[in-house]
Amino acid sequence: SGCGKSTSIQLIERFYDPVAGAVLFDEVDARELNLRHLRSQISLAGQEPILFNYSIRENIAYGFEEATTAQIEDAARLANAHNFIVKLPAGYDTVVGERGSMLSGGQKQRIAIARAVIRNPKVLLLDEATSA
After folding, report:
1. Torsion of CA 95, 51, 117, 88, to 10 degrees
2. For the chain, N or C: smaller number of CB within 10 Å?
3. Is residue 130 part of a domain?
4. Contact present, 113 and 90 (Cβ < 8 Å)
5. Contact of 115 with 75, CB cutoff 8 Å
6. Which ranges carry the ABC transporter domain (predicted)?
7. Residues in the chain where the model's pLDDT stays below 70
8. How far is the C-alpha of 116 from the C-alpha of 100, rounded, in Å?
9. How far apart are CA 121 and CA 43, in angstroms?
């Protein structure tokens, strides 16, 4: 707590640049990289999972509309979410409610992690994403 994890993540994603020193990716200063390209290579599962009043399938695929059913289920398996999802009344088509109100804190975090891994990012950032 208070050791700078969130600040480090913000530096990696270039929400701001360091005043001194540099953030390097494969020995290249992050400031030399195209910002859009850099961010396309990074996925983040944050401290507070953000879920929408959509189905679990849509929440996992959010921002990656071309995701296939197989990719969605693979991401859920990687996030250790598949087993609880298939036990829900409508499985992957279960609507989670506003801010995921129909799910426990741990289930919401697993859905958020699945969303983060579905694009197969080169860099996966977990900001206390497993605290629940």
Report:
1. -30
2. N
3. no
4. no
5. yes
6. 1-131
7. 1, 128-132
8. 16
9. 6
- How far apart CA 94 and CA 103 sit, in angstroms, is 10
The domain containing residue 58 runs over which residues?
Answer: 45-121
> pLDDT at position 30, please?
94
Query: Is 86 among the domain residues?
Result: yes
Q: Does the residue 81 lie in any domain?
A: yes
Q: Are residues 18 and 70 in the same domain?
A: no
Burial of 72 (0-12, 13-18, 19+ CB in 10 A): buried
What's residue 79's pLDDT?
95
Which tokens is 67 given? 């995701």
Domain tally, the chain: 2
- Supply the pTM of this predicted model: 0.84
Q: Assess whether 95 and 33 both reside in one domain.
A: no
Residues across the chain? 132
| Radius of gyration of the chain, Cα coordinates, nearest whole angstrom | 16
What is the model's pLDDT at position 100? 80
